[in-house]
Automatic annotation (TrEMBL):
Residues 7-205 form the NAD(P)-binding domain. PANTHER family: EPIMERASE, PUTATIVE (AFU_ORTHOLOGUE AFUA_8G07320)-RELATED, OXIDOREDUCTASE HTATIP2. Coiled coil: none annotated. The lineage of its organism: Eukaryota, Fungi, Dikarya, Ascomycota, Pezizomycotina. It comes from Clonostachys solani. This is NAD(P)-binding domain-containing protein.
């Protein structure tokens, strides 16, 4: 499978790239990135790094390079507190993600063989909330925005298209070099190590899932 990967300089996206390189079922990874990547990634024969400055637009020449891709693993986002303001967080999380999904649905999915469907795999977060009017007691901005993205992606799926959307909801993500104390603390809130999350996301890209929303406790079995 040829796959598109975003969020290449982040914790999750970089782990997804490493997993794609080692996974024999991934034949090639097209990495959309604003920044240069380490040579061990950019020089790898399985990886094509495509400079992409504006994630709200997908011009014809870019889509031509991505022709034949069967999945996208979208790891751009994070928590609201990591952004300068809510408008920026919403633009990056909602506008960028849905712009890519619409472009891939319109231009990449129809060109796949008849028995194949394009899979868009979104790394969301636990407790994402679709009801934008709901009052939340913690992490409200993050949960509402991620819920808005999830709903927007799922609304793009219809019986007549060959486009599927899957939203993974990790409770927390631990770096690969996390110490024993970090692992112990992570167990308290059901965190997953980043390499295991990457394996789960690649698994979904390759195989799909029984439902569109994959909760935190359902991610770990996918990589075992």
């Amino acid at each position: 499978m040829k796959v598109i990967i975003t969020g290449s300089t982040g914790l999750v996206g970089s782990a997804v790239i490493r997993e794609a390189i080692t996974n024999s079922s991934i034949t090639h990874a097209f990495v959309l990135s604003r920044k240069d990547l380490p040579k061990e990634i950019s020089d790898n024969a399985k990886v094509t790094v495509i400079p992409h400055a504006d994630f709200s637009t997908y011009p014809e020449d870019l889509l031509t390079q991505l022709a034949g891709c069967e999945a996208c693993i979208w790891a751009i986002g994070g928590r609201a507190a990591q952004f300068p303001d809510l408008d920026t967080f919403r633009k990056v999380s909602v506008d960028y993600t849905l712009a890519a999904a619409r472009a891939f649905k319109q231009h990449l999915a129809p060109s796949l063989p008849d028995n194949q469907r394009f899979r868009f795999v979104f790394c969301s977060g636990k407790f994402a909330e679709w009801d934008q009017q709901k009052s939340l007691s913690f992490m409200a901005d993050t949960r509402l925005v991620k819920g808005q993205v999830e709903k927007g992606l799922c609304d793009l799926v219809d019986k007549d298209s060959r486009f599927d959307a899957f939203c993974a909801r990790p409770s927390g993500v631990l770096a690969s070099d996390v110490g024993a104390l970090g692992k112990l603390t992570g167990k308290l809130y059901g965190a997953i190590q980043v390499q295991d999350l990457a394996k789960a996301l690649v698994y979904i890209a390759l195989n799909g899932a029984d439902k569109q929303i994959i909760e935190a406790d359902e991610l770990t079995p996918l990589h075992q």
